[in-house]
């Protein structure tokens, strides 16, 4: 098992550590609900250094990324980040990812569990003058998220953080360390993601400075448990749960990142055909009625006694104080207001399909 450069800090804080994507990661510190509410109400800090980063450069870097991803990379000006995905030829999803335009190169940020798979997939399609390297082990990544995140971090940098728009970034010093300061995150709250050198001493310096700066706001660490409940409340997808090689971006509700008119890319023909033939199923959000039992990944979804889908993500929402979930259902049962039932290990949970997100998105 690998460890991030913050591992010793997590141990000192008494984190519950568990394996995740090949890493020993902090699942929780003070409890998932406490950490969840900390991020929604104030500010929390996540170590997400297990995520993968690839550097792409060379005169054909843009064309390479255009061929591999579904979004239009040509619209990505320096200082901007873009949410996108890679697909197989049949339209199934290789991974969802972020692309940063660093000016002289691009940085591709991929899911931790998919680093090797993604790297091999991209390497297989290398073409032209492209330098492609896996820099994951060189990069530390902290996500500082919550309504007080800007006030916390502004104490540590001369960069005017209020001027960084959503899905934009700057290169600058924070806590005396050179880094990428990005207005992105996975929580639906105002937040920043900080990319810097994965040296344990530098990491300790940044962590300590951020915690000290946020002390007046009740800052604290947050683990992967709260990261999951926060992203589920937002209807954000997790690879391996809500999307994978058996699902396509159109049925997953990611049609807004699929630019079919940008030119050819891997999976385009299949996605065009799927769009023209019409979707057969759709990823929806739903809330559980009356019961406090949370739905879980893999539970079957029924309508009038007939199986019509399955749950991909589910949890107890600390904000709504009820069970919430996402899942694929037959297209004819996918409209908001539709009542369904979920088989929770033999217990039938009545649920109703709702629009996503479950709680307001304040990230912008």
Automatic annotation (TrEMBL):
Enzyme class per UniProt: transferase
GO molecular function, one term: methyltransferase activity
Keyword field: Aminotransferase, Methyltransferase, Transferase
Residue span, GCVT N-terminal domain: 6-262
Catalytic activity: N(6)-[(R)-S(8)-aminomethyldihydrolipoyl]-L-lysyl-[protein] + (6S)-5,6,7,8-tetrahydrofolate = N(6)-[(R)-dihydrolipoyl]-L-lysyl-[protein] + (6R)-5,10-methylene-5,6,7,8-tetrahydrofolate + NH4(+)
Keyword check for Methyltransferase: yes
Enzyme Commission number(s) from the entry: 2.1.2.10
Positions that bind substrate: 193
InterPro entries, A to Z: GcvT, GcvT/YgfZ/DmdA, GcvT/YgfZ_C, GcvT_bac, GcvT_C, GCVT_N, TrmE/GcvT-like
Keyword ATP-binding attached: no
An example Gene Ontology CC term for this record: cytosol
Entry's transmembrane regions: none
GO BP, sorted A to Z: glycine decarboxylation via glycine cleavage system; methylation
The Aminomethyltransferase C-terminal domain, residue ranges: 281-359
Top-level taxon of origin: Bacteria
Function, in words: The glycine cleavage system catalyzes the degradation of glycine.
Subunit field text: The glycine cleavage system is composed of four proteins: P, T, L and H.
Family membership: Belongs to the GcvT family.
Listed name of the protein: Aminomethyltransferase
């Amino acid at each position: 098992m690998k460890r991030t450069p913050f591992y010793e800090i997590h141990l000192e804080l008494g984190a519950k550590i568990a394996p995740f994507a090949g890493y020993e990661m902090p699942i929780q510190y003070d409890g998932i609900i406490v950490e969840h509410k900390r991020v929604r109400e104030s500010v929390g800090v996540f170590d997400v250094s297990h995520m993968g980063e690839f550097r792409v450069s060379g005169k054909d870097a843009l064309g390479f990324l255009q061929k591999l991803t579904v979004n239009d990379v040509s619209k990505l000006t320096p200082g901007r980040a873009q949410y996108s995905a890679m697909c197989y030829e049949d339209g199934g999803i290789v991974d969802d990812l972020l692309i940063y335009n660093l000016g002289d190169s691009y940085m591709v940020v991929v899911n931790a569990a998919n680093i090797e798979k993604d790297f091999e997939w991209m390497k297989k399609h290398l073409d032209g003058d492209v330098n492609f390297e896996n820099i994951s082990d060189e990069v530390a990544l902290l996500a500082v998220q919550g309504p007080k995140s800007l006030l916390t971090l502004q104490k540590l940098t001369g960069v005017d953080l209020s001027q960084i728009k959503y899905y934009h970034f700057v290169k600058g010093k924070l806590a005396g360390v050179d880094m990428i300061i990005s207005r992105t995150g996975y929580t639906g709250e105002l937040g920043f993601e900080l990319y810097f050198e994965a040296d344990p001493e530098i990491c300790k310096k940044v962590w300590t400075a951020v915690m000290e700066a946020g002390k007046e706001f009740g800052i604290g660490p947050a683990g992967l448990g709260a990261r999951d409940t926060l992203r589920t409340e937002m209807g954000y997808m997790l690879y391996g749960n809500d999307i994978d090689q058996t699902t396509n971006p159109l049925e997953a509700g990611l049609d807004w990142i699929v630019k079919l008119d940008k030119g050819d890319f891997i999976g385009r023909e299949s996605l065009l055909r799927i769009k023209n033939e019409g979707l057969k199923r759709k990823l929806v959000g739903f809330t559980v009625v009356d019961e406090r039992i949370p739905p879980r990944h893999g539970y079957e979804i029924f309508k009038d006694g007939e199986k019509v889908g399955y749950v991909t993500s589910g949890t107890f929402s600390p904000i709504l104080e009820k069970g919430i979930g996402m899942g694929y259902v037959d297209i004819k049962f996918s409209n908001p207001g539709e009542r369904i039932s979920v088989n929770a290990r033999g217990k039938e949970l009545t649920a109703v399909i709702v629009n996503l997100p479950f709680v307001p998105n304040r990230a912008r």
